[in-house]
Structure of TadE/TadG family protein:
Amino acid sequence: MIRKFLQDRRGNYALATIAVTVPLLGALALAVDYSEMSRERELTLNALDAAGIATARRLIEGASATELQTYARNFFNANIGNIDPGRVQLSLVLPNDNAAGGGTLKIGATLDYDPLFFGAFERLRNQTPSDLSFSASSEIKLKNTIEVALVLDNSGSMDYTGSGSGKKRMVLLKEAAKQLVDTLSAQSAQMKQLQKPVQFGLVPFAASVNVGSSNENESWMDTTGVSPVHHENFDWTTIGSAGSSKYVEEVAGVRYARGSDWGDLKDKPLTRFTLYNNMQRISGTNQQTNTTTEKECKEWAWSWSSGFYCSRWGTKTVTTTTNVNTFSKPFTWEGCVEARPFPYNVDDTAASKSSPATMFVPMFAPDEAGNIWTQQSATDPTIKKFKSHNSWWDDMSTTNPSNATDYRARQQNMKKYFVAAPSSAAMPAAHDGPNSSCTTTAILPLTDVSTAAGVTKVKAAIDGMIALGATNVPEGMAWGWRVLSSAAPFTGGRPESEKGNDKVVIVLTDGENTYYTPDSLGFSDSAGNGSTYSVYGYAAQKYNNGSNPRLYMNTSSAVSKTTFSNANFTKALNEHFAALCANAKAQNITVMTVALDLDGKNAVEKAQIDALSACASDSKFRRDSSGKAAKLFWNATGSSLADDFKSIADELSNLRIVS
């Protein structure tokens, strides 16, 4: 058939063949070029997507517009395959130049297609070859906002030298945290059309967390004493019997001052704030001069019937001088609060007076019974001693105990707080006395770091941190979550339902969770408290007259409910931490954790490392050696901390890109 076709010389057959062949060749040329154009368009789109994401990352790292243009072009060229880059015109529109607003980066390409056959076909038909080109674009949406709570260990061990660094851990932490703020603040400047694109909050923690003494009268604080933990260790019946001139009456869970001897406090609620605001110390004396007039006889007379008598009366002025005590207010609430009872210690439930256990209670360490020493000789091994951990007020002469050795009764007696201390009485230092275990600076709520003022404020708060006290990681993390929340106590967080917003808690600690028995610190526990006072009160105190202490609520059988030891306390706190982590992540909180200078060969510290690793969220961008999502956990040393915080900055940057 083909041979006959080639040998045929008949004109009508040739003409017919030409008439058919030209369209066939055109269709074939069009099909080949269409296929090639489609392939080049797919390559262009893929290269645009890759270049857009890469350029977006460079943008949030703070690269200039000129640098971004060059970077985008080079990245596109490297990914476009065998297409001649000279045939492609590339355009880049940065967020700041985008009239549509917000954090959108647009990258586009126009490619001049060089046809393989279609141009020749058009010339065969005596037509001018057409200019073939196509355009493609890719849009990269930068996530609008990110909120970060820095939950940083301020315990006493942070004053130790960081391994391999030559600097104290607290110094290293401050440097790394401030660098993180600088990095993210530079990125937020790229999103100037948005309000508060990047916010940082700071939660310094040690044994407790300081919410700020200026919040004393906020609605979420227990200002009327309704919480079931508010009056732990306070026996208000010691004030007086009902109906007397000074007593306390409980009405609907609130203790009221009753009787004429209360003065200005009469009929008001009695709370821990009452004690802080009304305890007095004699600060000195003032001489008070009083002038009175008295009747005085001016003339005397005599009579045989009555003897001498006053025949004329007058008056005289009498001046007396007395010493009057002046008083000062020896204490103020420094801002720390106790942990709420389970389940509210491990969640973000809003405080409400209709649910008293959700309210936040100010810390107030009860005055413990005073020190008593009995000693036969300095070398006698049978020496008996009683030394309380926190005796800061006179509970002996003011309470008139019937049994001076009933140390728990003396500790709970409320009369002592309403008797002024003499001027000779030594007052406890800051972070001691009623404020015992309150050692940290106050929380800094979420602060916009897209402004210089915001950056300065956050970095100043970081610089203000001090290393002092024990370690309670779960309490720190709980407040980190609350700082991010849109609901009170701190309301700076965007609504949890808002799209395009990430809430991130970064938790760093250099030690295991701690709560202490008095004996472990060299003190006696004659009052049977089970522990020193801290955010769960005294460990032996049963919650709301129940069966378990508050510290042990909702813990497993691995935690003995009747054992009061440092090791058992740590187990309980570890379980609270695990529950808190699970709850936070279930509410879409991204958790990043850092263990600083913890020794994996030490069983207790290894448990903390494992707990921090388990708490961490999974990375959305990095993979581990097995191909699984990497944990957002860093096992840092003093020498690696700065680099580890740079890795954290990379993770936070990646969170802000949606391809």
